[in-house]
Write a structure and sequence with these properties.
This protein is an alpha+beta fold. A 3-stranded antiparallel sheet has the order 5-7-6. A two-stranded antiparallel ribbon has the order 1-2. Strands 3-4 form a two-stranded antiparallel sheet.
Length: 181
């Protein structure tokens, strides 16, 4: 088979596979030490140009970097060779595990933040004459069920206003006077 490349005519035999084309055009620049010395120099200019065109077409980059850095994995702590300066993890597995840990920590942080916002004391509650069950919970730092149990036992006086339960501020003050005596 005759192959016309630029101004050169090259005869290649493709009896079993097109591997000779790879050896002739792509391998000389990638790994010239794998080729016999007479084939490594044959067609080097065209092979370099073809390889660069193929690389740009497939990756979008002009040429890749041959940088190699010794780094420590942010997840497992093992040493590894990084090919870019921004690599943080030694493997895809470590990257996925770190991502899961980061998401888990974010969920815990959100839950803690919600809990502290819910439990924050509102100073306006101490000024109100009648409190809802939630406000009474915040005022005496008790759960809703504890407030309802105290109402059912008759230890805490409360009234219904439509569907909501209102507790007089004086009833909460009396509850603590009874426990002190």
């Amino acid at each position: 088979m005759l192959v016309f490349i630029g101004f050169k005519l090259i005869y290649l035999s493709f009896i079993c596979c097109p591997t000779p084309l790879f050896y002739l055009y792509l391998l000389p620049d990638c790994c010239p030490d794998l080729l016999p010395t007479n084939q490594a120099t044959l067609g080097r200019e065209h092979a370099t140009y073809s390889y660069k065109l193929q690389h740009v077409a497939t990756t979008g980059n002009k040429m890749s970097s041959n940088i190699r850095l010794q780094k420590t994995c942010q997840h497992c702590g093992n040493r590894f060779t990084a090919k870019t300066t921004v690599t943080q993890f030694c493997s895809d597995t470590c990257a996925k595990r770190a991502y899961k840990q980061r998401k888990r920590d974010e969920k815990i942080e959100v839950a803690i933040k919600e809990e502290t916002e819910k439990a924050m004391y509102n100073p306006a509650i101490s000024q109100k004459e009648f409190l809802t069950v939630d406000e009474a919970c915040q005022l005496i730092n008790a759960s809703r069920w504890t407030i309802y149990r105290l109402i059912d036992k008759g230890e805490l006086k409360a009234g219904k206003l439509g569907r909501s339960t209102r507790i007089p501020r004086t009833a909460i003050n009396e509850l603590f006077k009874l426990t002190e005596a």
